[in-house]
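User: Show me a protein chain along with its predicted structure.
Assistant: Here is one chain, sequence first, then structure tokens.
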Amino acid sequence: MTLGAVELLIRGRTSAGGRARGLRRATVSMVQAILDLVNDMLDLASDLVQNVLDLVDGFVHDFAQPVTLFCERWE
């Protein structure tokens, strides 16, 4: 829970009508924080996939091409 959400919970309990409003705002803040975290995790996963693709591309370029040339010459 973010500090803002805790602050809204505390403020929301000072009045009867404000309590529900404070809880809703706190819930929205928590959901927003969770979505931000998920977004960051997806960015990291995307970077990881791109790095793996770059690694595979480098392997194919650096190792597979000379092997192919060797096999063509062998025939």
